[in-house]
């Protein structure tokens, strides 16, 4: 996998994907996109949607920050081991999310977000394979 894509490329792709997902969830939160197509189609009220979308936006923003730190776009003194541990958690999160998306009621979530979360899990795995950015 190391020869197919560099760690830096994988980080840049993840930042772009997560930024797009962040915009998507912001559009859901603001009502531009109906909330029936997210969270496996199980949201029943606008209040529930606001809570879950706030969590999603927070997690995605945090993940973007982690990748910005890992790439060195933001100077920091956070040990690589801590950043890698968080990225390993993202591998698990995206993997579990892929499985969850397979059971979504929404076709959009099934056909769009299942491959997206699968690719994200693979990219995160690629990023964390190398301990230090080259």
Task: Provide an overview of this structure.
The protein is mostly helical. The protein has helices at residues 7-29, 46-71, 80-101, 107-129. The chain is globular, with a radius of gyration of 15 Å. It starts with 6 loop residues before the first helix and ends in a 5-residue tail after the last helix. The model has no long low-confidence stretch (mean pLDDT 91).
How many strand units?
0
In terms of per-residue confidence, which ranges show pLDDT below 50 for 5 or more consecutive residues?
none
Major sheet, described briefly? none
Give the amount of beta strand, in percent. Answer: under 5%
Helix content: over 70%
Observed structural traits:
single chain; 134 residues; mainly alpha; 0% strand
Which helices and strands appear, and what pairs or packs with what?
Layout: H1 7-29, H2 46-71, H3 80-101, H4 107-129
Helix pairs in contact: 1-2, 1-4, 2-3, 3-4
Concise account of the structure shown:
This protein has 134 residues and is mainly alpha-helical. The chain is built from 4 helices and no strands.
């Amino acid at each position: 996998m190391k020869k197919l894509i560099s760690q830096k490329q994988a980080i840049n792709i993840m930042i772009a994907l997560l930024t797009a997902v962040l915009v998507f969830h912001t559009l859901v939160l603001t009502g531009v996109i109906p909330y029936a197509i997210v969270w496996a189609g199980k949201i029943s009220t606008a209040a529930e949607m606001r809570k879950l979308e706030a969590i999603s936006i927070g997690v995605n923003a945090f993940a973007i920050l982690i990748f910005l730190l890992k790439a060195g776009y933001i100077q920091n003194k956070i040990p690589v081991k801590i950043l890698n541990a968080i990225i390993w958690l993202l591998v698990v999160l995206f993997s579990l999310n892929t499985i969850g998306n397979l059971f979504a009621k929404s076709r959009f979530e099934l056909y769009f977000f299942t491959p997206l979360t699968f690719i994200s899990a693979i990219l995160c795995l690629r990023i964390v394979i190398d301990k230090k950015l080259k």
